[in-house]
From TrEMBL:
The keyword rRNA-binding does not apply. GO terms for cellular component: cytoplasm. PROSITE patterns: PG_MUTASE. Substrate binds at R79. This is Phosphoglycerate mutase. GO terms for molecular function: phosphatase activity.
Amino acid sequence: MQQRWPDRIWIVRHGESAGNVARDAADAAGHTHIDIAERDVDVPLSPLGERQAAAVGRWFSEMPASARPDVVLTSPYRRAVSTARLIRAAGGVAEPLLDEVADERLREKESGILDRLTREGITRLHPDQAEFRRLLGKFYHRPPGGESWCDVILRLRSALDTVSLHYGGRRVLVVGHQVVVLCLRYLIEGMTEDEILGIDREGDVANCAVTEYAFDPHRGSSGKLVLKQYNFVTPLTRAGAPVTAEPDATGAAR
C-alpha cells in the first residue's frame, strides 16, 4: 500500500510580529483597540521575530540534508511567509525544494467585527459577543464576519487532504499561526473539543515553537502520524533568542 502521509511534518508558528507587540502594549494600557496600521495579512515580523525565525532555521540546518524539510507550506500572511523565508535563508530546508506553496487555508482565524479589539474592547464595545462566546465557547463561537475554531478546522481538513494526496513520504514544514497549530493537532490526533481546549488552556503556542509528527507505519491499518514534540522552543533558547508567546492581534478571543 502506498504511504499517504509524509514521513515528517513540522508545524511552526510564525515569529513574533509587530501585531503581537502592539497587542501587548494595548492590553497593558487598558486600551480597547490594538494600534496597528496594516491589514492583518500585511503585519510584519518584529526584529525579535526575525531572530527567532533565523534560530529555527539554524536548528533545521544542523540536520543532515536528507532529513530537512523538502516541502514548505505556509500561510499567505506576511509574518508567516517571512518566517519561512528566514528559515530557508538559514539553511533550514533541503535544496532543491520539492514544493514551496503559500496556502490560504493555513491563514489566521478571521475575527470579523472583533478584529483589532482587546479583551477590554470586546467587553465594552460588543458585550453581546462576549456573552455569546461565554455561552458557546471559543470552539463554536463565530463573531459576525469572522470564524469559529470549527470553521478553521473545516479548511484545515482540506489542506491535510492535499498533503496526503501530494506529499506522501516527504518531509513537510508548515508555517502558520497559533490556532492553525492547535487545530492541526485536533485533526491529526483525532481529539475532542475538550481535549484540544485543555491543551489551549495550558498556555499559548510560542512564536517559532516547533510541533513535530513522524509517520509510524505500524500504527493502525495503514500507519499514522505520531506526535514527537509540541511547543518545542529549544532552538530559540540555544540561539539566545527570547521566547515569546503572545496571541495575535486579530481579536482577543482567538
